[in-house]
Amino acid sequence: MVSKLVPGDNISEVITHEVKELGGQLLVCTVSYINTSGEKQMFRKYYKFQVLKPLDVRTKFFTTSDEEIFLEAQITNTTPHPLHMQKVVLAPSPLYTVTDLNFLSSGDSIFADSDYISPDDTWQYLYKLTPKMTADEKSNVKGVSSVGKLDIMWLSNFGERGRLQSSQLQRLIQQQGELVVTVQSLPHFIASDEQFQLVLRLRNTTDRKYNLHITLNQINNSGLIWVGDIKKVVGRCFPALTWTCSLIYYPLNLECGMLVRSLLRMF
Q1: Alpha-carbon separation of residue 170 from 68, 87, 167, 207 (angstroms)
Q2: What pLDDT score does 75 carry?
Q3: Backbone dihedral region of 223: left (phi > 0), alpha (psi from -120 to 50 degrees) or beta?
Q4: pTM, to two decimals
Q5: Which residues pair with 92 in a beta bridge?
Q6: Distance in angstroms (rounded) separating the CA atoms of residues 233 and 267
Q7: 112-165 pLDDT, tens per residue?
Q8: Is 232 in contact with 246 (CB distance < 8 Å)?
Q9: What is the chain written as a DSSP string?
């Protein structure tokens, strides 16, 4: 508020306002004053402008066989000018903890030495989510689960500050089987005529006990021969506990390349 404006003088004011909606906007500027006769006067100016989407944000969820959850956020600069990215963080919901995988062990960003994203460029951010729920609680959860929100802050080429906060990100809860089997250890490459070890991790996701037996299937013309007993008795599998099972097999006359085999049956 200005108390007095002398003839020929002018004032300059900077007013900031956070725009939360895209599209056409209307700015109304109102000036009220009292003239030399003591009369109250007022005039208005109208300014129309467009608010365009500065960033395009897409997200993908990935769940590994070990039940690790990863969120990939792809951020594209849709403006004609470079943007200085100040912060891109995932604020998790109370159901999860988050690990930011966008920094090296030295603490430096994976995006080299520049924090400027060029027009039409896309940067990919990766986060690891860890559920706070126990195995029993996760087995009772169905439908969708709220993961958290992305909070993004940047500066334009004129130093204008921008901020974008996504809506609550949600993922579909995948129902597990009664027994979850994952590969804990397996060589990336194997040589013909050299035996190697496969280590499996077994987890009982139910509230019941099982007597588990493993039968190794010998597939004709598969080029694989199991070493040792083809039937194994794991024993009692108690609820929410995990076991490991080591298996040895011998590759014989295998063709080169990537192989996919179904080699065991559990009951």
Answers
A1: 16, 22, 9, 27
A2: 92
A3: left
A4: 0.56
A5: 148
A6: 10
A7: 667 889 999 999 999 998 877 655 555 555 556 788 899 999 998 888 888 888
A8: no
A9: --S---TT------------S-EEEEEEEEEEEE-TTS-EEEEEEEEEEEE---EEEEEEEEE-TT--EEEEEEEEE-SSS-EEEEEEEEEE-TTEEEEE-SB-TTS-BSSTT--EEPTT-EEEEEEEEEE-S-HHHHHH--SEEEEEEEEEEEE-TT--EEEEEPPPEEEEPPPP-SEEEEEEE--S---TT--EEEEEEEEE-SSS-EEEEEEE---TTS-EEEES-SEEEEEEE-TT-EEEEEEEEEE-SPPSS------EEE-
pLDDT digits (tens, 9 = 90+) for 4-49: 777 778 888 777 777 777 788 888 888 888 887 888 888 899 989 8
3-30 core/surface letters (b: 16 or more CB in 10 A; e: else): eeeeeeeeeeeeeeeeeeeeeeeeeeee
Tokens 């901020």 belong to residue: 163
